[in-house]
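Please decode residue identities from the backbone states below.
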């Protein structure tokens, strides 16, 4: 049965916390950008009563709007341990003072949680303190935000000139996930844990006023055309909120997804799968080693393709669309693809792992 691909973003803010656009405005931006779903994550508040489906003016397109929250202890200095919380059905900000308690309550509620921007960047120019994840002793979180677009922009603001340059044309500098985040992801998965990676915008649509002129820095629609999460599901969305939300949350929980930077070139259609005598697998799945497992990769345009095992590159193709590799060792296998864009090699696709046991 062919898989359906859903495109979505799971980290953004409204005026209920520190964003500028309300849900209806964000939904229209998502529709214009071609997203199938979004999860709005205001800080320490679960906003309820939002219409789940929003439609384009001609009623031909729709987006599913779901709500989670970004929970954190506001008393911490410096700020750290921001947790993206999904599908709990209840407010959990009161648990923010104890990160392990918060994660436990997420799991008790049947939800899932992801460490937001776990290795953030700093910028003295804009007086920004990095919001890192520091509680690596906790257990039970489902995944990591592997690529946070706005966090990467902070990395580029080294001078006033660069800040202006990249605010106007961020695609000149955006290049890929934080290397420390990828290293930590590989470390966690190699230890035997299943940790799901997602990519997000962290959209705020901040308004800036200078010299009597106002402008929106990084509008929602612009960000929704950049770093997103692509889900692979067995059936498409049908307009029933219970059916559709369960489909999305199950794919996120299982890691049936990849992170795509869709601005340089569309990543829709990427596939990474495994075939062996013990069965078949897609991203996020486990498969038994048996006599060997054949890994197959297909990317939608020519790219540099890297296959990694436990964080180390074991196979590579340059300027190609396919890679096949016979794995003869157990391990955690994931895929990275890089594409040339505006004079620089950019991170383009980052798959969730296939776990060969």
């Amino acid at each position: 049965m062919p898989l359906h691909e859903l495109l979505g973003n799971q980290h953004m803010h409204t005026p209920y916390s520190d964003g500028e656009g309300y849900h209806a405005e964000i939904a229209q931006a998502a529709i214009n950008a071609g997203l199938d779903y979004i999860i709005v994550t205001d800080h320490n508040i679960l906003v309820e009563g939002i219409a789940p489906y929003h439609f384009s003016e001609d009623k031909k397109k729709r987006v599913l709007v779901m709500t989670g929250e970004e929970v954190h202890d506001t008393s911490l200095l410096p700020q750290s341990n921001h947790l993206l919380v999904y599908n709990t059905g209840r407010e959990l900000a009161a648990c923010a003072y104890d990160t392990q308690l918060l994660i436990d309550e997420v799991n008790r509620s049947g939800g899932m949680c992801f460490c937001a921007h776990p290795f953030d960047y700093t910028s003295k120019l804009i007086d920004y303190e990095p919001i890192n994840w520091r509680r690596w002793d906790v257990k039970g979180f489902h995944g990591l935000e592997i690529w946070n677009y706005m966090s990467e922009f902070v990395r580029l603001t080294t001078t006033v000139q660069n800040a202006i340059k990249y605010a106007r044309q961020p695609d000149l500098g955006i290049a890929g996930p934080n290397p420390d985040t990828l290293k930590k992801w590989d470390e966690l998965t190699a230890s035997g844990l299943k940790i799901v990676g997602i990519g997000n915008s962290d959209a705020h649509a901040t308004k800036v006023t200078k010299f009597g002129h106002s402008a929106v820095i990084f509008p929602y629609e612009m960000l929704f055309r950049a770093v997103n999460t692509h889900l692979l599901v067995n059936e498409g969305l049908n307009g029933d909120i219970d059916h559709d939300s369960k489909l999305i949350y199950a794919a996120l929980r299982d890691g049936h997804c990849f992170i795509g930077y869709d601005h340089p070139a569309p990543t829709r259609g990427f596939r990474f799968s495994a075939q062996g005598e013990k069965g078949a697998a897609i991203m996020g799945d486990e498969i038994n080693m048996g006599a060997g497992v054949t890994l197959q990769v297909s990317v939608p345009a020519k790219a540099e393709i890297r296959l990694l095992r436990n964080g180390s590159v074991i196979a590579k193709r340059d300027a190609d669309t396919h890679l096949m590799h016979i794995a003869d060792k157990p391990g955690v296998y994931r895929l990275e693809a890089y594409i040339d864009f505006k004079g620089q090699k950019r991170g383009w696709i980052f798959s969730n792992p296939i776990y060969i046991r």
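Observation: The two ends are 25 Å apart (CA to CA).
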